Amino acid sequence: xFVWTISKSxxxxxxxxSTTTTTTTTTTTTTTTTxxxxxxxxxxxTTTTLTTTxxxxxxxxxxxxxxxxxxxxxPxxxxxxxxxxxxxxxxxxxxxxxxxxxxxxxxxxxxxxxxxxxxxxxxxxxxxxxxxxxxxxxxxxxxxxx
Length: 146
Description:
Layout: H1 2-40, H2 44-145
Protein name: ABC transmembrane type-1 domain-containing protein
Organism: Dreissena polymorpha (Zebra mussel)
Keywords: Membrane, Transmembrane, Transmembrane helix
């Protein structure tokens, strides 16, 4: 409760100071503006026409400059586009090459796998043969001992 009252008082103080400052600034600005308006009212018409013409001329110059730039840039842009297209075509060719390479690699891998499988099969066959031989030999030996 105590904290609340303190904060409220601080806020009130802040609010009061801000309002006073704003009122003083507004009054000063209004006085200055009124004085300037009265002095410039006579010359206002001529200056406005001059300023508008100057602005128009500036705008026209800017437009002309922009047009010139565009004219200069258009061929450059076209060239860039052509280059990009060429690059794209090259990239496509490269991609095709890459795809071919990938296919080749895949084929090689398949071949390797097949070879491995063959090797494994051969090994298995050899093992089986060995086992058979051993069994046969053992059996034969056993038979002989009786």
